[in-house]
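Sat 14:20. Reprocessing the chain from the morning session after the first attempt stalled halfway. Input below, unchanged.
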Amino acid sequence: MSATEKQKKREELTKTVKDYVLNDLGAALVGVASANDPQFDRAPKGHHPTDHLPGAKSVVVLGIRQLKEALSEPAHGEVHFKHYDLMNAWLEKAGFDLSFKMKDLGHSALFIPESDPYMKFFKQRDIDGHPRWSPIFCHIHAAVAAGLGKRGKIGIVLTPEFGPFQRWMSVITTADLVPDPRKEKEICLDFIEEGLCDSKCITACPNGSLRAWPEEGGAQMYKCMAAPMKAQGTACKACIGACPVGK
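Finished this time. Tokens:
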């Protein structure tokens, strides 16, 4: 098979996968990253795509849209928590289905849970002395590598379509897919022009847990979770709800 024919097959397989994610699963966003993208070099030992799936060549990242209204409603977080819980269940099912779709297409695949249990991170700190939260896989890195968005003031991914209002799922696969180009244009207003939005995400945090990323570390998650969330409930929404980007 010639190089041209191989590239055509890569492109056809990539289109098949993306069409399945958007049309059959109903995701709002999909992108592809190389499993060896430099973005994943930021991962701790054991957390790289090829650590999870030997022989991995690609990471498919899909996003589900969040309702901005659920993030800005004034109740004590109950409405947002229900939305959050529903989105997590959808993402897990989508990752499961896409993994088996990849197997049907002749490739190994593994989906990564959309969130790690919070108690795991406290055990990492108390037993192993971890200074930061270390999820088994960073969907933020994957979304950036897959060309879906850019990191904003506090390190979360902003997309041109929805700003910060989406959640992510990643599927690691041995399929050799065509990676999407990285986003180059800034999306965060403060990165477009300093002071343009007065760092609303940082000032909205009820616990003072947020700082500018990457210079000062972004979210201080241990501090965030240690403080009582009287105004926000179980799933905090303050920083994302305050973001003026997206709809």
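Strands lie at 29-34, 58-65, 109-112, 150-151, 157-158, 166-173.
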